[in-house]
Amino acid sequence: MALLHRSGTSLPALWRSRPTAPIVGAVASTHTCTYSQPPSRLRHYSGSSNVTSSRVRSLIDKRAIPSTAIVSSNNRHASTAAMEKPDYQNMYTASSAFFEALWEAGVTHCFVNLGSDHPSIIEAMVKGARERKGNFPKMITCPNEMVAMSMADGYARLTGKPQCVIVHVDVGTQGLGAAVHNAACGRAPVLVFAGLSPFTLEGEHRGTRTEYIHWIQDVPDQKQIVAQYCRYTGEIKTGSNVKQLVNRALQWAKSGPQGPVYLYGAREVMEQEIKPYQLRQSDWEPVKLGSLPTQAVDTIADALAGAKRPMVLTGYGGRNHEFPGALVELANIVPNLRVVDCGGSDMCFPFDHPASLGLNYGGEMSVADADVIVVLDADVPWIPTRVKPNPDAKVFHIDLDPLKQQMPVFYLEAQETYRADSQTAVEQLTEALKTGNHAKKLQSQNVVEIAQKRKEEHEQRLAKIAKAAEPLPDDSFGTGYLCRQVKKLVPEDTLWAIEAVTNTLFVYDNIQPSTPGSWINCGGGGLGWSGGGALGMKLATDAENGGKNKGKFVVQIVGDGTYLFTVPGSVYWISKRYNIPILTIVLNNKGKLLTTT
After folding, report:
1. Which family would the database say this protein is a member of (predicted)?
2. Which of 208, 342, 418, 533 is the most exposed place for a label (fewest CB within 10 A)?
3. How many other C-beta atoms are found inside a 10 Å radius of the C-beta of residue 365?
């Protein structure tokens, strides 16, 4: 794996068989040269394992390859424009505008796996890093595409800020694999960009086809590989509006329900020379969710005030780190309220609060006894074949995506359903319960006695969990004991990247996450998220706290089978290359839990 350098600036390494293609493309395509057969000089450096960074820099900086000849095999498309040597130092291309648009929109990192569709992308990377230092996205080379996507996912999940992934035509898009599913289900805002095989064959435009693989990787509809998982897909067809397309994609990614977006563009388009321009960034903010209607607030508050066994179920409300605090305030006012995390992908409610019933994936038996249920941002509040609400229970569903637009089969038998911001809705309910008839209704109950009973039940639950985590008589121990010991050793503000699968409930019960943003689990079912996810979280916490290793400690807890899916070789290469330290704990359960019916 060779690192390209130009004027001392490191370029991302190009993986697998891909070093050959980008080097050829970066020279031949960017310099507007095609040949009836490759010149020996170019052929030698594209295929040799002895390519040195200094020699490649020499080829690029000194323009060793002639820039005056566009010659096809039959000379039908000789270009007079190519006879003039371009001003590379001052050239501003669609690729330049692409990276400018990312930075101006708040994207600070690009996780890249490059190929023969990216010569102008590479040129823009070098130029931007050299000329816009401190005002240009940082490039993180990722030898595997799923790890790249998972890093962007983890970064966005912790900060709420979308990042960019750059991959290679159709094959790189396919390499994203289950990571796209995870970002879609986990509602993680990520922008993916992929190149397209060139659409010209005979030197008609800069960026025309120069390699065998350009024919092989030309597919009918590349976006369809990931379209059903994306909030938006779009092709960059001209450099003149590349910034608008980037911002449109990011607007989709950041608007609820958040998720991945996919842009793609051919070499000819991305190498197009354009005039620099700016957008007014304030015009591209995400679409904001509304609040509950006044009548809805009154109806739900009245139901909670009069309930004997009220319950809240939430699955991903904690993506918004202000949400848990708002829910705590509601639980403090309603003394008999119980809260269940039914998603486990975020810290939605503090484990140490007396109202917490912990994490349960659709099987919380208390659901059957509740007389009022409020579902807040949850995909699977209960599994009907395990437990159902009482037919007489009042059920209210408040969600940023209540119809679950990407699930063909979904429904909740709710009295009322609202599309609204859950934090805002909770704050509205809390305010309504503080005054007026709702407050009087609450106070008519023995509030102190009810709150004390809830506290005692919570303490009993904690004691039961601690007892179950004790070592066995033969001094062997399980996941619970391990997690309790690890928690004692790491900093109190540690961030946990969890992909323990069948051990997740044991991990949750003994880590007992109580700080917003401290617990992040894969949002979907694509195993292998946690390696890249943990790296992305560490990169993010360092960036948010002033630089390398100034952020919080990050621990990855992963099952032994899932660990193999994380592509450890790629994960640790990135960790070493970019100094991103994480602690990985692999749980060996010595088996696989089989599916039951």
Report:
1. Belongs to the TPP enzyme family.
2. 418
3. 11
Q: Where are the alpha helices (DSSP H) in 398-503?
A: 422-434, 436-443, 447-468, 479-489
Predicted pLDDT at 443? 85
For 413, residues 6+ apart whose C-beta sits below 8 A from its C-beta are 389, 395
Q: What is the pTM of this model?
A: 0.85
């109950």: which residue's tokens?
445
pLDDT tens-place string over residues 486-510: 999 999 999 999 999 999 999 999 9
If pLDDT is split at 50, 70 and 90, which confidence band does 84 have? low
Tokens of 325: 């605090």
Of 174, 176, 270, 181, nearest to 217 by C-alpha is 174
Contact 380, 342 (CB under 8 A): yes
What pLDDT is attached to residue 294? 97
What integer best gives the mean pLDDT of the chain? 87
Structure tokens at 402: 């209540």
Tokens of 156: 């966005």
Share of the chain above pLDDT 90, in %: 80
Cis bond upstream, residue 257 (ω within 30): yes
